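Write out the bound-state structure for D-glutamic acid.
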Amino acid sequence: MTDNRPIGVFDSGIGGLTVLREIWKAVPGESTIYFGDNSRTPYGTKSRSTVIRYSLQNLKFLETKDVKMIVIACNTASAYAYEELKKRANVPVVEVVTPGANVACRSTKNGKIGIIATKGTVSTGVYKDAVERRAEELGMKDIEIFQQACPLFVSLAEEGWWDTEVTRLTAEEYLKPLKEAGVDTLVMACTHYPLLTKVIKEVMGDDVVLVNTGEATAQVVKELLNREDITSEGNSNPVREFYTSDEPELFEQVAAPFLGEGLPSGTKHFSTDKYEVTV
Ligand code: DGL
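---
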């Protein structure tokens, strides 16, 4: 059945655009509505109950837009709020943790997997659990998981310092324990980190596989659309809308390098904090 309703995507701000652009690549005919909660970013340093509340409010907003699927394009929100959103949403919900964990298990040869993320995501341990679950399903033995919070990477990415000396030094400091542990696979479990791929790769070395959770998630979106039979077939003119809880102009300035030339445009303002939710 053809379903031309849009896919709703939200993030704490602009980082989720790295997931959105992978969705565009994987399913180019689909319309999307992106909500960036820029006025309340970052989520990575906030408490569990706050992130769940914000995420439920974002869900309510996207549901008013008659979306056919929700993508939580934020690792921290996925880690804290996925279960709650899944319970309350009236459409399928996709998170970014499981897809990245699955790819990591398929890629590792020596069983040593590194996970870099915000402090919030690391503290939940959900990535570790997801990797362990997947490894068990695949019958893999002796998996070792090494987690590292890299909070400064978010600011460096937003500053546009994707390939600078400061970024290299910061990466060397954060990634040292993972290098010493000998990980052969590293999950970039935060929306911003794919922007620092070049530096992270240089520091970790060519032999370490970097997992982009956005790419992995986009494949899950594609599979789910097919499985649920809700693809937007033959739509040659998909609509791509943007909303932000902060100033649209500011959003577009910071977002442009995440998405490519001339994008996004026509961003509208919306604050989801008026929605009453119980956590
Ligand atoms: N989007 C967040 C994540 O993927 C990073 C930025 C934030 O802390 O809000 O965890």
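---
The chain has a mean pLDDT of 95.
Residues 11-12, 15, 41-44, 74-76, 118, 121, 154, 190-192 surround D-glutamic acid (CB under 6 Å).
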